[in-house]
Amino acid sequence: MTTTPYLTDAELAGQPAAYWTGLAYEALIAFTRDQQAELGFTQPQFWLLRNLSENDLSPDGHGMTVPELQQAMRTYIRPEDDLAAESEGLVGRGWLTRDGSGRLWITEADEEARVGLKRHAPAIRARIHQDIDDADYVTALKALRQMIHNTGGDPDR
């Protein structure tokens, strides 16, 4: 695993976690979205399909309105994500359907598209985790979870 060459371990230990987690968040989101764009879809489109699939995040497979989907994705959607526009793109591709009450639905054919998109996730993860031991990754996550707990947050939400 490589580290920042100009900082010693002691100097790294004194760095602000919020700065580094923010930097990591932005870099990881940008990388993931770039990879997905190269494959012809957006991260919000993938989330829409996942949230409508009873084989993934949907608890019951029932259709949802855009506001219901925004509520379901509130912990990870970004301010610039326009779910109404993203869902229109999926309806236009034939990956979602909309009923008369504005609820979006995933069909069997659309489910195949979701599964196909999900197949790319391991390769994207592998690039992100390159040269990082699983033990180091687990240690980093445990440290972050403890920091969340220490500051009154809920690491399990």
Describe the structure.
β1 (97-98) and β2 form a beta hairpin. The chain has helices spanning 9-13, 17-38, 43-52, 66-72, 83-93, 108-118, 121-128, 134-150, and strands spanning 97-98, 104-105. By secondary structure, it is mainly α. The chain is built from eight helices and two strands; from the N terminus they run αααααββααα. The protein has a two-stranded antiparallel sheet. 58% of the residues lie in helices and 3% in strands. The radius of gyration is 19 Å and the shape is elongated.
Beta strand count: 2
Q: Strand-residue fraction?
A: under 5%
* Structural class assignment: mainly alpha
Could you give the order of the helices and strands?
HHHHHEEHHH
Q: Which overall shape is indicated by the principal axes computed on the Cα atoms?
A: elongated
State the separation between the terminal residues, measured CA to CA: 30 Å
Residue windows where pLDDT falls under 50 for at least 5 positions: none
Biggest sheet, open or closed, and with what strands and sense? 2 strands, antiparallel
Helix content: 55-70%
Q: Overall mean pLDDT score?
A: 91
The rounded Rg comes to 19 Å
Please work out how many helical segments DSSP would assign.
Answer: 8
Main sheet: strand order: 1-2
